[in-house]
Specification:
By secondary structure, this protein is α/β, with parallel strands linked by helices. An 8-stranded parallel beta barrel has the order 1-2-3-4-5-6-7-8. The chain is globular.
Length: 328
């Protein structure tokens, strides 16, 4: 099992480390083999060592299905005006999404990433507050399959393509039939699942402890049976946001800004309250990981700076070491 630390690949992250050797030493100290990176919009430094990048998280738009379907009436309803839509996505042609994904796949290939991660979910700002969905899981899954097959094509890419579960409409890893529909629809042979433990916990607002969360993860694994063989990676973090979701969803806040981009910024803090990305400290998670036996495990944890990032990752790698699970 290779362990990675999640890190945006941009100058603001890199400046916290005093060169690549310092980053290597930090990763080794934390028990990680490398990084799971995500593009930040900047060109990669020309001297970025490709061996540091084990995994690559593809770009994603939380709300993309209506844009891809060219449903302009719905887009105007959500964004207020088509010029705002154009600014947000970089244009109005749905083909833009395919082009952006294909460019990101090329970036992953240029870094020799062993795997890439693709979100299969769709949620608007309003839905994130109301929890009243505009599209079904099946709609999102079927449209995502179409996009995945188009962007991967028939090319033999150098990486494994992993789909990640969310708690929004789409792939949730709570319904084996939907999971089988998604995996079976992807034509690319090197495919699998990146199971996000915190996202799966977000599908159950009754959870109150990490131990309950681990039991719920085991229940979903049991429910999926032989489909679990597709789980090749794990995003490890925990989220117990049920009380917040119960108290703060069901309707739009009265003070939500009218301007879409202002709404988007305000919404980000709301999402972080739901999707907490906190480190596991309860060993109840260890049997879950032992059962999955992932090839890759990413410590995908919330942090404001290098010190906080290191402390969060160390909490989890220490837990894994104590349970006898291999560290980098």
């Amino acid at each position: 099992m290779k362990q990675t630390m999640s890190l945006p690949l941009y100058s603001g992250s890199f400046i916290e480390y005093h060169g690549w050797d310092d980053m290597r030493r930090e990763l080794a100290r934390l028990g990680c083999d490398g990084l799971e990176g995500v593009w930040s919009g900047e060109a990669f430094p020309p001297d970025l060592p490709s061996e540091l990048i084990i995994g690559y998280h593809l770009l994603f738009y939380p709300d993309w299905l209506d844009f891809y379907r060219d449903n302009k009436a719905m887009l105007v309803r959500k964004f207020g005006a088509l010029n705002t839509v154009e600014r947000f996505y970089g244009g109005l042609d749905p083909e833009i999404l395919l082009k952006q994904y294909q460019q990101d796949l090329e970036r992953a290939a240029s870094l020799n990433a062993e795997y890439v991660v693709f979100h299969v979910s769709d949620v608007s700002i309003e839905e994130g507050y109301t929890y009243r969905w505009l599209h079904s899981n099946q709609e999102v899954i079927d449209t995502a399959i179409e996009i995945i097959n188009l962007i991967l094509g028939e090319r033999d890419w150098p990486f494994v393509f992993l789909v990640e579960n969310q708690w929004w409409p789409g792939f949730t890893f709570t319904n084996p039939e939907e999971t089988a529909r998604l995996i079976g629809g992807i034509r690319y042979p090197k495919k699998g699942i990146m199971l996000d433990t915190g996202h799966l916990m977000n599908t159950n607002t009754s959870l109150r402890t990490q131990r309950e969360g681990a039991a719920y993860l085991r229940k979903m694994l049991n429910t999926h049976g032989s489909l679990c063989r597709y789980i090749q990676g794990v995003h490890l973090h925990q989220s117990l946001s049920g009380p917040y979701v119960t108290a703060c969803t069901g309707k739009l806040p009265t003070d939500l800004p009218r301007d879409y981009l202002e709404r988007f910024a305000v919404n980000y803090s709301h999402i972080l309250r739901i999707d907490q990305h906190l480190p596991w400290t309860d060993p109840a998670i260890l049997p879950v990981l032992e059962r999955i036996e992932p090839h890759w495990l990413t410590h995908e944890l919330s942090s404001r700076n290098r010190r906080a990032r290191a402390a969060a990752v160390m909490a989890q790698t220490t837990l894994l070491r104590g349970g006898g699970l291999a560290c980098g």
